[in-house]
Amino acid sequence: MNTDGRPTDLEANAVALADDLRSVTAGIPDGAALAFSGGLDSSILLHLSPGSTHPYVVGLHESRDILSAIESASWLHKDVTVLEVTEDQIIDAALNVMKIDPGIKLTDLGFETVLYLTLSSISEDIVVTGQGADEIFYGYHRFLSGKEGTNTSSMQKLLNITLPREKRMAESIGKQILTPYLEPAIVRYASMGPSSHIANGKNKIILRAAGAKLGVPGLICQREKKAAQYGSGVDRVLRKNFELLF
């Protein structure tokens, strides 16, 4: 609050976002799967999803994402299923992604391989993902470092390249992806500009504040987390086998 009792812009935006997140997650059907890494984005979705939503985390043995997902799920009083994968499974999944998008670059192949491993390992037909949160709420390190001033190009890539590719991936194995953060009510926050989302060396400040108002534990709301391809160990495997893949 300001000294006169009026809410700050951050507080007002956080309250509005919390309401919008409740609205978009209300459409998640019973029995859906959730791609869960234990970070802020997927933890908010798990917290707001129906009780029948089944979270899954993918990674190498004792990878950071697996440990993080188990810890965050416990704080949210949920159970998460660990999909522990081998290097061979990672390579096979990457090759399947490359068949769907022959021109994909290594920088994108990592996170798409994580998604493909999730899609191909579960029995549920519908998978909820946190796709879009990093672009909308300035979650990438390149925004903090100033290497990318606004999220315009990131949003364009997401909507025109990444999301269509992921829909093709899901369809190739008979699955459907739901992306609550890419509902219009949430996408509108992308236009607020970096000064609304980054302050004092911290990114995603509106989303973090909204998570707190929704009742997500503070340790999750303030957690810094690496992207799934790094936290799962997938990127390391792909780089080690670069000549085999490319």
Give the key terms.
246 residues, alpha/beta, Rossmann fold, 5-stranded parallel β-sheet, 15 helices, disordered N terminus
Please describe what this structure looks like.
The chain is an alpha/beta fold and 246 residues long. The protein is built from 15 helices and five strands. The protein is globular, with a radius of gyration of 18 Å. It has one domain: Rossmann fold (3-Layer(aba) Sandwich). Helix 1 crosses helix 11, helix 4 packs across helix 5 and helix 5 packs across helix 14.
Write a short abstract of this structure:
This protein is an alpha/beta fold and 246 residues long. Helix content is 55%, strand content 8%.
**Pattern of helices and strands:** HEHEHEHHEHHHEHHHHHHH
Low-confidence stretches: 1-6
Q: How many discrete domains?
A: 1
Average per-residue pLDDT, rounded, comes to 92
Sheet with most strands: 5 strands, parallel
- The end-to-end distance, rounded to whole angstroms, is 54 Å
Question: Would you identify the CATH H-level superfamily?
Answer: HUPs
Number of helices: 15
| CATH topological fold name | Rossmann fold
Instruction: Give the name of the CATH architecture.
Output: 3-Layer(aba) Sandwich
Strand order of the largest sheet: 3-2-1-4-5
Q: Rg to the nearest angstrom? A: 18 Å
Gross morphology = globular
> Level of helix content?
40-55%
* Annotation, overall tally of beta strands: 5
Q: Give the DSSP E fraction (strand runs of 2 or more residues).
A: 5-15%
The CATH class turns out to be Alpha Beta
Structural class: alpha/beta
